[in-house]
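Progress report, Aim 2. The chain analyzed during this reporting quarter is listed below.
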Amino acid sequence: MSQAALAGPPLMPADQSDLTPGLLAATAERIAERAAGMGLRQWFWGEGVVLQGMLRLAEATGRPPHPFAAEFIDGHLRGGIELGHVNDLAPGAACADLYAMTGERRYKDGCERLLRWLRRDGVLTRDPGGAIEHWPGGVWADTVFMAGTFLIHCGVHTGRSELIAEAGEQILAHAGILQHPQTGLYAHGSHQGSTIWCHWGRANAWAALASVEYLEADRRHGGTSERVRGILRRQLLALAAHQPAHGVWDVLVDGQPENRGILETSATAGIAAAMFRAAALGIEPGRLRAAAWRALAGLHAYVAPDGTLTRTSAGTVLQLIPFGYSVIRNDMIQPWGQGLALHAYAAALNDRARPGQSA
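Predicted structure tokens for the chain:
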């Protein structure tokens, strides 16, 4: 319990009335510029989250995306993409977005390359219910974002509805294993068929963002959409109920004594983005907008002057006990923190732009 006891007090949240569109956009541009200067070179999941965040920001501001996004994708398309894990699909969502923005064939070809790898026999294992395993024998919430957003964006921008449907099926399969039947919160993952009920914040962010991506893409509102909508509503209302007054969730969101007061910002950013977007879809708009703005105001206090999102946890494998999730890297910038912050600020800008909306 010593780390929780020694945790510093939360920073004072920003005044929500100060979070004007101009301030939100300027802060997000600093976050994007800092991410572009990190020296990211590997085709991997953290890079994919940054790329997606940059393109979300461009969509929200109506400005061209940061040049880093196309430069990164183009460099890998020329040099060859090395694929070895389901996480490697994450940059593919940005590749699909660039195809939609430019119409350049090379981006569609890049998506096809990723799909061929995904379909290759023996590349991925699945649990008995069909959920893609993050590692053989383990289903993680991370996968529905890393693979799911690629399938969704590729499906939307190439007119392949079956890819969107596949992502929806994965969301449901993962929820069946990882969403707690009583609380509605997600566990990080399972091991050898047993779910480990550590309600890690970033796992909840991955699952919630994948769900809103799917609902935004699938406008048919069929059976799968209604089921995804239901599990997302339960999850986000549970997260809102566990949110501290200052807005930033603990690294485990359900008040575990081993982690209580150990704040983590990347999860808060991802959850805030999902709440803004779910509210725009008509899911509990009053409650979720209020929680999202509390989260954004709390998050804003942790953005350093150079655009670094502080108090972001390290890359985290499945842990057996709650304390294993307590590694916060204030000493080192993390790409997933930068990327999820871009998601949050972009979603806040879109919320501000809706008629009649205020914080």
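The first strand starts at residue 189 and ends at 191. The CA atoms of residues 67 and 281 lie 31 Å apart. These observations will guide the mutagenesis work planned for the next reporting period.
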